[in-house]
């Protein structure tokens, strides 16, 4: 069964392919020109479904085999920032670069005079296909710090430390992050769904 990924985020796609090893995962932008999807949902779940449905609508007409469109909407939720950046994680700083977004979280914590806060990552994974639309969630709990560490991963990985670990996600290799991450947890559930649908 082919899985078409509704994302052109290369680093996210690498992680998803690593996790869904037994599936053929193709980025939609390798099949049709990438197009803008307005993520105006009010939750990770709404945005994941918006992305998967938008790609499904465009791809449906050109496919002659069974397929699912998979999307991932994810972000960081920081307790001391009242849940920010949350669903705005990808565009928290406006400009949208990973470094600027991460720096904004650090600056906001420093403005409050604190150097760490409880936080979690959330991933909503949605699949859309001829058998319907489904969405599941995965979470990774821990804390954020104000001194970035590590070179691996992407986004907020250099400031996130998973519960019971002392290194950041960016200091872990791909394999280790992929057994702890919110994305791994939600994709575990997606794999169960795909087996039974
Ligand atoms: P999305 O592509 O709209 O789902 O944006 C998700 C944003 O949340 C990314 O741009 C990252 O900034 C952040 N994010 C999501 N998952 C991770 C992760 O595993 N590590 C670090 N940052 C993440």
Can you give a write-up of this model?
The protein has 197 residues and is an alpha/beta fold. It has a single domain (2-195), classed as Maf protein (Alpha-Beta Complex). The protein contains five helices and six strands. The chain has helices at 10-19, 44-59, 98-111, 174-180, 182-196; strands spanning 2-5, 24-27, 67-78, 116-129, 132-145, 160-162. It has a six-stranded mixed beta sheet with strand order 2-1-3-4-5-6, with helices on both faces. A hairpin with a 2-residue loop joins β4 and β5. The chain is globular and about 55 Å long. Bound molecules: inosinic acid (IMP). Inosinic acid (IMP) is lined by residues 9, 72-76, 89-90, 98, 101, 121, 153-157, 169, 181, 183.
Secondary-structure blueprint of this entry?
Elements: E1 2-5, H1 10-19, E2 24-27, H2 44-59, E3 67-78, H3 98-111, E4 116-129, E5 132-145, E6 160-162, H4 174-180, H5 182-196
Parallel strand pairs: 1-2, 1-3
Antiparallel strand pairs: 3-4, 4-5, 5-6
Inosinic acid binds at residues 9, 72-76, 89-90, 98, 101, 121, 153-157, 169, 181, 183.
């Amino acid at each position: 069964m082919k899985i078409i990924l509704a994302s052109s985020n290369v680093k996210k796609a690498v992680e998803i392919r690593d996790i869904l090893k037994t599936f053929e995962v193709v980025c939609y932008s390798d099949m049709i020109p990438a197009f803008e999807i307005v993520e105006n949902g009010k939750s990770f779940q709404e945005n994941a479904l918006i992305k998967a449905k938008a790609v499904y609508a465009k791809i449906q007409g050109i496919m002659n085999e069974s397929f699912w469109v998979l999307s991932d909407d994810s972000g960081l939720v920081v307790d001391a920032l009242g849940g920010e950046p949350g669903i705005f994680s990808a565009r928290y700083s406006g400009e949208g670069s990973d470094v600027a977004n991460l720096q904004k979280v650090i600056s906001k914590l420093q403005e409050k005079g604190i150097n760490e806060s409880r936080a979690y990552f959330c991933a909503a994974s949605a699949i859309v296909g001829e058998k319907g639309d489904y969405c599941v969630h995965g979470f990774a709990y821990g804390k954020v710090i104000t001194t970035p560490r590590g070179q691996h991963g992407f986004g907020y990985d250099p400031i996130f430390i998973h519960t019971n670990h002392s290194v950041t996600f960016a200091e872990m290799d791909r394999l280790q992050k992929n057994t702890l991450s919110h994305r791994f947890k939600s994709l575990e559930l997606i794999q169960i769904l795909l087996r039974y649908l």
